[in-house]
Structure formats: structure tokens, C-alpha cells
Design goal:
The chain folds into two domains: 400 residues, MFS general substrate transporter like domains (Growth Hormone, Chain: A, Up-down Bundle); 54 residues, no CATH class. The C terminus is likely disordered. Helix content is 78%, strand content 0%. It is built from 18 helices and no strands. It is a multi-pass membrane protein.
């Protein structure tokens, strides 16, 4: 529960400030061009430094890294809540991302090494998968309530009491194995983190600059060169940051790719539905947050009541493939929405299907991707799973938003015949852009199901004590 609480805090913080952003922008005088940095400062630092965080967890010890990450995250949250100008808020969000990159992989690797019995492991990963999948939606609800009834700053302050409870619980309940002495791969850190940072930054900048902008293209090219150099170096490094055997495993590679593709679609849903509910249907921030509640409940149900019960009996892909088909079906329903759609009859069924599908998928992805890893590689494996999430989220937000914006502009240009109808055509054009992008998201989720079906061939775990190669002796 302590590990799940920390994971919830990290995932929730990627979205909780979305609904609070207009209030923060007015309060601090942030320009329209710079407001994106409240979001991207966090995701860039988080995604770019995750591999380093995973290796630090392996070297220093997971419990110690977990506690350091919690304390640092709480401090950065308090700093952001007290921000007096845009630069202070951007810096605090980046600092949150740094400590999240330390916290997230140590949390998942602690879960991997603490729960070794297949039945208990299934329950633990069911809870973890539910929180990982629903944390973003919970962020919308909490963000809406705090913004409407207190102040946008509480969307950051709320992390402080959560972190205090988690630190106290970790000190009492969690056990740790000692760190594994080894040299830190400094060239690997620079090449790997630099390459990821350049690519994630490129996707974030593509939203405002366009995909063909020279700066965006140079970021993608530079990121690709750095990552190629990273792979070349990892083959030769005496103590590699990311041992390549981790991603050479067919099942693990399939899970990582499935996760990334699934999150692309999910982040697109959050982005468009938030704007659709508030701008088109006129929902308040709190009502918008609660509109996502059925999605959250469906993710939790699918993860804890279906995936967790079946994981020890069926192959992981027998959960992941139907999960992605269900999620894609929910997206297809959403492509039919109009400027006056009914939430109950048209939006709600889609959210329930989407949530159930993501719940079926997340838990077996986490469990399979981290299974059978040597103790010294548990942290970096966990970081790789989290990195696939962050990269998927960044790609999804940038790619689908660009598709939606372009489609909306084309629709408005084609249908606008006079100033009298500008407002109506603009609303219709915005929704048209959303539906075009959601069609893409539905296709991407079907692709995720295809990847899972072809690449993830692992069998269900046997009911036996894992070998000492997979579990540290000192974990209680």
C-alpha cells in the first residue's frame, strides 16, 4: 500500500495541474506561449532521467532511494505551491520530475522484489496497475475539486501530507537489500538521458512549432544520434546503464512497446475529453474531474477483479489483447460525438470500455516486464517500464493534438461561408478535429493489441517459490 501510494502521487502529478493551469496562469501572469512548461517541465525531467533513477536505485539500495525520492518530491511540491513567478513554478515542476525519476523505479523494483509468491504478486500488481492506469484520471478529479474549492496551489501542496505518510510507512514496513557496488556509467547517463530528453522535448515543441520546423527536426535527429551512440556504448561499457539483455528479451520488449502504444491513446483521450467537456459542453472544473470517475473505476475493476484473478491462470497476452480491443472499441464510440452529445448515452459507455480495457492491460504488462530479472537489474528494468509510459504520453499528447488542430483548421476553412456562422462552425470544427485524432488513437490501440499478441508469448507464472536468482535473499 505504501508503494502504491507513492506511485499514485507520481502518476497523479502528471495531470493534477491540468485543470488548475488556467488559474495558475492568471495568478502568475504566465503567457500562452509559456504555459505548456508547467506540464512539460515535469514530464521532460521525469522521462529523461528515469534510467538514471533506476540505476541509482540498484546502486544505493531501493528503500533508501525510495525515501529520498519521497522527501525531495514533497519539497519540490511545496516550492511549486509557494511560487511567486512563472520561473519559480517551472523550476519546481522540473525538480518534481527529477525526484519522480528517482522515486518511480525504486517503487516498482521494491514491489518486484517484495512480493515473490505468485498469488500475492498478482494482488500487488493488480493494485499497482490500477493506480498506474487510473492515477491520471484521479488527478483530474482531485485537481478539479482543489481548484474550485481551495486554490490551484493546493494541487501541489497536496503531495506533502501524502509523502509524509509514505515516508513513515516505508520506514516501518519496507525491507531492503543492500546496494550493488558498481561504477556509475557516466557516458551512458549523458547519451541515454540526453537522447530521451531531446526526443521528448521535440514532441512537446512539435505541438506549437509544427512537425517540419527545423528546430523540431534537429531535436529528433540529435536524439536519434544520441540514442544510437548510447546503444553502441552499452555494448562496450564495463558497467552499462541499461544492460541490453533487458530489452532483448522478447516478452519484455513486447510489453514495453504495448505500454507505450496504449499510453499514446490514453493521453490523447484525457487531452481531448477535458477540453470537450469544459469548452464544448460547458462543464465546471470539478464536474469535468468527476466525469472521468467511471473511467477510473473501470480501470480499477479491470485490474484488480479481472487481471489479478486471471494472471496466474492464463497467458499475459490473453488479457492484454482483449484489453486493447475493448479500449479501441471505446475510442471508436467517441468518434461519433458531436457538439451536443449526451454524456450518459454517448460518452459514458466509451469511458467504461476504455477503462476496462486499460485495466486488463496495465497489470500483466507491469508484471511480465519485471518478471525474472536479476536483483541487480530490478531498478533499471522498472525504470525502462516507466520510461515507456512517459515517452508514450509525450508522443500521444503532441501527435494527436497536432492531428486534431490541423483537422479542425481544415474543417473550419472548408465550411465557413460568412461571419454570422463563425461561432457554430468553429465549435463543430473543434469537435471534428477531436474525432479525427481519436480515430488515430483507436488504430494505435489496435496496433498495441497486435504487438502484444505477436510478441508477448510468456506463460502464466507457476505456483512455486521463485529461484534465488530472481529474488534477493534479504528481502523479507
Amino acid at each position: 500500500m505504501i508503494i502504491a501510494l507513492a506511485q499514485l502521487m507520481v502518476v497523479l502529478d502528471a495531470t493534477i495541474v491540468n485543470i488548475a493551469l488556467p488559474s495558475a496562469q492568471r495568478d502568475l501572469g504566465i503567457s500562452d506561449g509559456n504555459r505548456q512548461w508547467v506540464i512539460t517541465a515535469y514530464t521532460l525531467a521525469f522521462g529523461g532521467l528515469l534510467l538514471l533513477g533506476g540505476r541509482i536505485a540498484d546502486l544505493v539500495g531501493r528503500k533508501r532511494t525510495f525515501v529520498i525520492g519521497l522527501i525531495g518530491f514533497a519539497g519540490a511540491s511545496a516550492l511549486g505551491g509557494a511560487a511567486v513567478d512563472p520561473g519559480m513554478l517551472f523550476g519546481a515542476r522540473a525538480l518534481q520530475g527529477v525526484f519522480a525519476a528517482v522515486l518511480a523505479p525504486s517503487a516498482l523494483s521494491l514491489l518486484t522484489t517484495t512480493f515473490t509468491d505468485p498469488k500475492e504478486r498478482g494482488k500487488a500488481f493488480g493494485i499497482y496497475g490500477a493506480l498506474a492506469g487510473s492515477g491520471a484520471a484521479i488527478g483530474f478529479i482531485v485537481g478539479g475539486v482543489l481548484t474550485e474549492y481551495l486554490d490551484w496551489r493546493w494541487c501541489l501542496y497536496v503531495n506533502v501530507p501524502i509523502a509524509i505518510v509514505a515516508v513513515l510507512g516505508a520506514s516501518v514496513l519496507l525491507h531492503d537489500s543492500p546496494g550493488h557496488p558498481a561504477r556509475l556509467d557516466v557516458p551512458g547517463v549523458i547519451l541515454g538521458c540526453g537522447g530521451l530528453f531531446a526526443i521528448v522535448y521535440g514532441f512537446s515543441e512539435a505541438e506549437s512549432r509544427g512537425w517540419s520546423d527545423p528546430f523540431v527536426l534537429s531535436l529528433f535527429a540529435g536524439g536519434a544520434v544520441l540514442l544510437a551512440a548510447f546503444v553502441w556504448w552499452q555494448k562496450r561499457a564495463p558497467s552499462p546503464l541499461l544492460p541490453l539483455h533487458i530489452i532483448k528479451d522478447r516478452n519484455r520488449a513486447g510489453c514495453l512497446l504495448t505500454m507505450m502504444l496504449a499510453v499514446i491513446g490514453m493521453f490523447g483521450l484525457f487531452l481531448f475529453m477535458t477540453y470537450y467537456l469544459q469548452v464544448i459542453l460547458g462543464y465546471s472544473p470539478m464536474k469535468t474531474g468527476f466525469a472521468f470517475l467511471p473511467l477510473t473505476l473501470a480501470i480499477i475493476f479491470g485490474s484488480t477483479q479481472i487481471s489479478a484473478r486471471l494472471m496466474s491462470r492464463v497467458q499475459p497476452r490473453a488479457l492484454m489483447v482483449p484489453g486493447m480491443i475493448l479500449a479501441s472499441s471505446g475510442m471508436v464510440i467517441l468518434t461519433q460525438m458531436t457538439v451536443d452529445s449526451s454524456y450518459t448515452s454517448e460518452i459514458l459507455p466509451a469511458l467504461l470500455l476504455m477503462g476496462l480495457g486499460m485495466g486488463l492491460t496495465f497489470m500483466p504488462v507491469f508484471a511480465t516486464a519485471t518478471a525474472g530479472v536479476a536483483p541487480k537489474d530490478a531498478g533499471v528494468t522498472s525504470a525502462t517500464v516507466n520510461t515507456s509510459q512517459q515517452v508514450g504520453g509525450s508522443i500521444g499528447t503532441a501527435l494527436l493534438n497536432t492531428i486534431a488542430t490541423t483537422s479542425s483548421a481544415a474543417y473550419i476553412t472548408a465550411h465557413l461561408t460568412g461571419p454570422a456562422e463563425r461561432a457554430a462552425v468553429t465549435r463543430e470544427g473543434i469537435v471534428h478535429g477531436y474525432t479525427v485524432a481519436i480515430w488515430w488513437a483507436a488504430g494505435i490501440m489496435l496496433l498495441a493489441g497486435l504487438v502484444a499478441g505477436l510478441m508477448v508469448t510468456a506463460r502464466p507464472p507457476k505456483h512455486e517459490v521463485p529461484s534465488q536468482e530472481a529474488v534477493p535473499e534479504s528481502v523479507g
